[in-house]
Amino acid sequence: MARASKSLKIRKGDTVVVLAGKDRGKRGVVKTVDKEKHRVVVEGVNIVKRHTKARPPQSSTQANRQPETQGGVIEKPAAIHVSNVALVSPGTGEATRVGFRFVEGRKIRVARRDNVDIDETKGK
User: Fold this and answer.
1) Does residue 103 lie in a domain region?
2) Helix, strand, coil share (%) of the chain residues, nearest 5
3) CA atoms of 110 and 121, how far apart (whole Å)
4) Is residue 105 part of a domain?
5) Quick check: is 112 in a domain?
6) pTM (2 d.p.)
7) Count of the separate structural domains present in the chain
8) Residues 3-60: pLDDT tens digits?
């Protein structure tokens, strides 16, 4: 029986700073979030190289849908664990922990460092 995963405090589009690993100190924007594995993909962080083989389309109908994939070395960002990143506070620009507050029946994320609403400042 699968357990329901808890909501993560980091969301797609957030600016984060890496706390641990080879890219420690780098900042980037979160591209994807995997709630079940507790991992995030951050733009420009944890770049890995993958060697791919050129693959022509196998049929004429597939050729219309997919162009020929080109072979070579492809660099792309890999996922890192959510515990190794911290949200950047919109007020100070430093790493901060995230808390929650209820305003008018809505749950809003709050930067613990300077008590600034994250979701309210992000839209502006």
Assistant:
1) yes
2) 10, 45, 45
3) 10
4) yes
5) yes
6) 0.75
7) 1
8) 555 678 899 999 999 999 999 999 999 999 999 999 999 999 999 999 988 877 777 6
* Domain range for 98: 89-124
pLDDT tens-digit map of 74-107: 899 999 999 999 999 988 889 999 999 898 888 8
Integer angstrom CA distances of residue 57 from 37, 64, 68: 33, 9, 6
Q: How far is CA 90 from each of CA 25, 49, 115, rounded to the nearest angstrom?
A: 17, 33, 10
**Sign of the alpha-carbon torsion through 79, 82, 83, 87:** positive
Residues facing 34 on adjacent strands: 39
State phi, psi for 38 to the nearest 5 degrees: 55, 45
Cβ distance 91 to 124 under 8 Å? no
